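In this supplementary section we document a worked example of the pipeline. Step one takes a protein sequence of length 67 as its only input; no multiple sequence alignment statistics are reported here. Step two produces a three-dimensional model, which step three serialises into structure tokens for compact storage. The input and output of this example are shown verbatim.
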Amino acid sequence: MKLCKICHKISATDQDHLDCVQRRNIELGDEDFKNKIPEKLNLSKYDQDLGVEVRAILEHLSKYKDS
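The serialised model returned by step three reads:
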């Protein structure tokens, strides 16, 4: 028995909990996706072509990424 490095609870096996590992992978994948949104859309070129609602959402996501 050892402690899970992610949640710091006792693990019956000598490895981290599978659900903790999967949750961490999903969170890291989400962060990568959020970081790449402005680059994929190239907001500086197509800013005027986007609708007001879409621009507001993308600005919110890019601000959320910075904080």
